[in-house]
Structures are given as structure tokens and as C-alpha cells.
Amino acid sequence: MKLTKSVLEKLGIERINFGACDGIWITQVRDNGKLRRCNGDLLPSCDPTTNEIIAYVIQAEAIEYEMVVTEAARAFLSWRMVPAPKRGEIVRQLGEELRKHKKELGALVSIEMGKILAEGEGEVQEMIDMCDKAAGMSRDLYGKTMHSERPEHFMMSQCHPYGIVSIITAFNFPIAVWAWNAALAAICGNTIIWKPSSETPLCAIAVQHICNQVMKQNGLSGIFNLLIGKGSDIGEKIINDERIPKISFTGSTKMGTHVEVSCAKRLAARRILELGGNNAVIVLDNVSDSIVFKLAQRAILFGSVGTAGQRCTTTRRLIMQKKVAPSLTEQLIKAYKQVKIGDPLVEDTLMGPLVNRQEVINMMTALEEIKRQGGEVLYGGKHIGDCFVEPALVRAPKNMPIMREETFAPILYLVEAENIEEAIEINNSVPQGLSSSLFTKDLASAMLFVSHRGSDCGIANINVGTSGAEIGGAFGGEKKTGGGREAGSDAWKEYMWEQTTTINWSNDLPLAQGIKFGND
Ligand code: UN1
After folding, report:
1. Over the stretch 202-238, which tens digit does the pLDDT of each residue have?
2. What is the annotated signal peptide range for this record (predicted)?
3. For atom 1 of ligand 1, which residue has the closest CA?
């Protein structure tokens, strides 16, 4: 509790916090001509380790929503005219400020969400890396020139910012996913409205304080904005708002489908969806008796138990070739037995609590269903108390229906395959397509896995696990994972639209396709 208190103090979190910010925290609103204090429902934020309430947030309502959207739209008009490298400089300063707060911000992620401290700090590092990357990229928002089919004509394409980008994030990466999107959206010239998960509002408030400070130093406002409120209220408003042309949503496939349908109805809304994963690691026989066998074990352990199985990239399925299966299973049981479960702030803890009781219930219900469907729990799966569970290893028949679903908990299914072809078939047999990995010593299998006949996932790794992606590569998945890419590679293009221009510098007006129209 002492640590929590000092972390909150350093990050400017009060006992009761306001949930809407458009550069300045909105504390009062004009309602029917009269000023009154914001009085949205109080949202308590709970520490899943102790079950204690950490602090409260006054949730944003319709009036605050209007204020934030109006301000973000207004700020866009000037922000888009700030040269991109200058926008990059502001984002660089944000990275610097995050560096100063890495320890306490990492601790707050741990306290509010339950992931271990190393992973909490890792998230802040991801934000810093993203800011550094975006700062550099702000000089590289390139277009193209094309050769025209018409004489003395010139063609080019350039990229322009959308306007307001709304980023709706999930509890499991309460701050890093915002940074993947926000850093790029900002250098591209957009303004941002963040709606964080109601499970982790304090992390968002802490980041907003940091943004506000950097913006104030630069005489800016309205670029990074925040709305904490109910999904059924604020979330719905965002996805249906014609003034918000771009939405980046992270969450379940079910909610993502709803977002997709709502945005499609107004057509003008472009979206990035980062939805469910059902990620598999394949281990081939040829790794036996090699160092790769050890690497596979470590990667599987981190992938399945890390963040208590609550990453989109969590390893949910292990597909083992027949010969390596017995020894790998045995080693995993041994490793699982040694996983220290407990307070995520304690140094040697490997697995903290699930984010809330509902997730515990979901895991226990899934385990019951697994048994009904013929799965065998080889290790773990017990509810230890409150939000704490043991990670579970489950031997599963190949076609067990529940294996097609994403249960957001540390359950790892073990299945066997004859060869690489069958393993790839199993890998691709689920509706989701986020991450996948193959452990092998054989080049041909590795190349097959990353070829068009291979994994159908947005991420396909060789001798590297399914989770813990670097920000340098584009992040996202196919099929029911939703599509769209965030963070690295060419993901910046998601935050800009392309305009094609043809310039005629001749004294004639030739038409494309050689069309003759009237006298000339
Ligand atoms: C998520 O779970 O939503 O690759 C994102 C990873 C992290 C990001 C996960 N860098 O595991």
C-alpha cells in the first residue's frame, strides 16, 4: 500500500479523478446555461492483487464528450499545419518525459492491471521506443511520383492526416497500445481521443498528465485527449460519430465486430482492429537434443504464462510433432510447477492475478467445458483465491471445439501432429490469425512456414515465441483478428489518406486511355 501511495503521488493520481481531458482536465461543464461540476458515475479502479480500490474516476458523459470532440477537431486545424518533423519533435519530448516516469508508470500498470513489474516497465519501454521511432519517421512520411502515360504530365501521390483518430484500448496493455497508435497518429498530423478500458483508467490518467505537461511546455493543447466512460455510452458515441474518421480498436472479436459494423454503416470511418488471437507454437522433432529444444521451452513458458495468459499474442496452442511430444510435455509440466504466482510487484513472481473475478469465472467455466469435450488437464487450472489461478496445461484432441475460441486466461492446449504440413494445417484451422511460431532446425520447414503455403497469421516467427513482438515490425493479424496494422514497418500509413495528383505542364489536353472527345 505504501508503494501504491507513492506511485500515485508521483503520477498525479488523486483519490477522485476527472475522466475527460482536452488538454485541460474538464472539471465543470455548462449544463442548460449553468456551470456545474462534472458528475458522471464514479468508476472505482480496483487492484486485482489486493482487491482494494486504488482510486476513483468521474466518468465522462455527453457534455464532456462534446467538449473533447469539439476541441480535438479545432486543434486539428492548426496541428496539421505544423511541419511533420516539428510534430515529431513534440513526440520525441513525450518519449523523454516517459523515460523519467518509467519506474512509477510501470508500477502503476502492475498495480492496476496485475502484470508483473518487469512487464509493466516493459510496456513503458515500448511507449518510449514508439516515440523515438515516430520522431524519426516524422521526416519520412513519403509519397510517390509516377510516370504519366500522357506527354508533359506528372503524377504524384501524397499522404494527408485524417483529422481525429480515436484509440480504444483494452485492459491487458493499458498504455503501450495507445502509444503504438498515438505516436504515429500525432506525427502524421492527427489529433487523438483515447478511450481506455474501464479496468485500467488510472494508467490512462497518468499518461494524460504526462502528455499535458509536454504539450503545455510547447504551448499546445487538444492534440492528445482523453475520455474515460462506459463503452455503452462513450464507446458507442465514438464509433458512430461522423466527426471521427479513424478508429483504432483493441479488444474481443465480438466487440470488434460491433465496431466494424457501426463504422461500416457510416462508411467514412476507417478502422484498425486488433482483436482476438489463438496463437500456436509448433515444435518439430528435429529440435530434440539441441539448444533449440531449450529455447522452445522458454518461449512457450513466457508465451503461455506471461501476463497471466492475457495477451492477444499469448501462446494458446502447442502443436508438437510426435517424437518430441513426450519430453516437451514433461519439461513443461516441470516448468509450470516452478512458476511463482503472487504479488506482481514482488521480484521473483512470474504470474500475477487475472484482471478481475469475471475472468477467473470464465477460465473455470472453460476448464469444465474442456473436460466435457475430452480434454485432459495435465497440470494446474485451480482457482487459488480472489483473482489468482494456476496456469493450466491441457492435453487436447485435435478437433476439440473450444480450442477454436480465445479464452483470455493461461490455458495451453497440447496437440500432436505427424509432420510440418499437418502442424500448419492445425495452426491455420482456427478463426483467428494473429501470431504463430515454429521451432525447427531445418531451413526448408522454416521457409515453408513463412511462405504462402505456411502460417496464415500476421506474425509468423521462427525460433521465437508468439508473444513479445518488437515495435519495429507491423503488428496485427488476419481473419477474425480483424486486420489493420499498428506500430512498425509501414503502419504509419494507417493514419493518413492518399491523394493522387496529375499535373499538366504541356500546351495540350490529351485524355488518358487515348480517348478523343469532341474537336481538338
Ligand atoms: C496485445 O496483447 O494486445 O507482442 C498486444 C506482444 C506485445 C503486444 C501484445 N508486444 O506480446
Report:
1. 999 999 999 999 999 999 999 999 999 999 999 999 9
2. none
3. 312
**Is the shortest distance between the CB of 299 and ligand 1 below 6 Å?**
no
Q: What is the pLDDT of residue 1?
A: 66
Q: Which overall architecture, per CATH, does domain 2-275+485-498 show?
A: 3-Layer(aba) Sandwich (3.40)
Distance between CA atoms of residues 511 and 520, nearest Å: 11
Q: What is the pLDDT of residues 101-138, one digit of tens each?
A: 999 999 999 999 999 999 999 999 999 999 999 999 99
Interatomic CA distance for residues 42 and 229, integer angstroms: 10
* Range 55-61 average pLDDT: 98
Q: Which residues contact 396 (CB under 8 A, 6 or more apart)?
A: 370, 374, 375, 376, 403, 413, 414, 415
Name the pairing type of β-strands 153-161 and 496-504: antiparallel
Ligand 1 mutation target, pool 115, 307, 313, most atoms within 8 A of CB: 313
Return the exposure string of 255-289: e unless at least 16 CB atoms fall within 10 Å of the residue's CB, then b: bbebbbebbeeeeebbbbbbbbbbbbbbbbbbbee
Q: How confident is the model at residue 520 (pLDDT cuts 50, 70, 90)?
A: low
- pLDDT reported for residue 130: 98
Q: Is the pLDDT assigned to residue 409 strictly greater than 70?
A: yes
What residues does each domain of the chain span? 2-275+485-498, 279-476
- Cross-strand partners of 438: 282, 462
194 lines ligand 1 (CB under 6 A): no
First-to-last C-alpha distance (Å) of the chain: 84
- What is the pLDDT of the chain when averaged over all its residues? 97
Pairing relationship of beta strands 388-389 and 435-439 according to DSSP bridges? unpaired
Q: Is 467 in the pocket of ligand 1 (CB under 6 A)?
A: yes
In ligand 1, which atom is closest to the CA atom of 467?
11
Nearest atom in ligand 1 to 475's CA: 4
Q: Domain 279-476 in CATH: superfamily? A: Aldehyde Dehydrogenase; Chain A, domain 2 (3.40.309.10)
Cβ count within 10 A of residue 395: 17
User: Could you identify the residue written with the cell 500546351?
Assistant: 507
Whole-angstrom Cα distance, residue 177 to residue 170?
8
Mean pLDDT value across residues 180-209: 98
Residues with catalytic roles: 274
Q: Is the pLDDT of residue 2 over 90?
A: no
